[in-house]
Amino acid sequence: MRISQTAAALAACCASAHAFSDSSPIVMFSSASLDVPANQGLIQSNTDALATLQQLLKSCPTDRYLLVSQPNLNAANLVKKAVPNLLHYNEKAKSRYSVPEVIGELNTDDIAAFVRKSCEGRTKPFIEQLDMDPLRSAKDVSTLWNNDDQLGMVLEQFDSDGSYTVIFAGTPQKEVPQTYTATFQDGVPAELKRDVHSPHRRALNNSDNRPLFEKYQYFSTGIFTALVSLVILLSILYGGIAAVASLEVPYGAFDKEMGPAAQKKQ
């Protein structure tokens, strides 16, 4: 099995990968035949590495460019089990360039701007930039493996579409703030647990400061119907009482004799 120069160089410096806290590796490979310097070196500054990349890319050698940024990366992370897709496509490429220890950060935006300028007037290059999820620690293999899995799908597409150049640049490790989560054992008194969680419950119990007539409906449809019916009934009752009160009967009508006796007198 053929071992690439990049893999060999990275393996050679794994023992000293933590020598520089502000360093990170860079890997470049291309389907085109490039004049890669024979003596690449294990340690370079970011300006020297950028100058070498510009020298290799100034002729606009390929149609497509993939620029990958991997935060918190060091050379010890680039092993076969963590980045199998990256190393696979690196080994099958025609040209390869890598530096295990690049002092300072190498910005992929600067590389993209240089490629556009170099290809101006010749062709319109397709440039894709990927910002991978940062590694949480130097031993965060799972995140790096997931990133490599996503990268593998993109590399498969690039490899099937024609000529391409890939630049995989890491950024120096930075401190990741750790959050403290309080945990309580089963022996903690229940009163203490209630005191700890009660502020959250009080915070969620928002009081309703609306006026009384906005919170409650006092004049509903049923009450309105009952009031209207009551008014109608009172109106009818009032009309009846008024009619009865208006009747006038003369008192003589009660004194007049009625019946057979009165008829005999007549």
TrEMBL record:
Localization per Swiss-Prot or TrEMBL: Endoplasmic reticulum membrane
Pfam families: Ac45-VOA1_TM
The V-type proton ATPase subunit S1/VOA1 transmembrane domain, residue ranges: 217-256
Membrane topology: Single-pass type I membrane protein
Record field: transmembrane: 216-238
Entries under InterPro entries matching the protein: Big1 (IPR037654), VAS1/VOA1_TM (IPR046756)
GO biological process: (1->6)-beta-D-glucan biosynthetic process; cell wall organization; fungal-type cell wall biogenesis
Predominant cellular place of this UniProt entry's protein: endoplasmic reticulum
Entry keyword set: Cell wall biogenesis/degradation, Endoplasmic reticulum, Membrane, Signal, Transmembrane, Transmembrane helix
GO cellular component terms, A-Z: endoplasmic reticulum membrane
Family stated for the protein in its record: Belongs to the BIG1 family.
Protein name (record): Protein BIG1
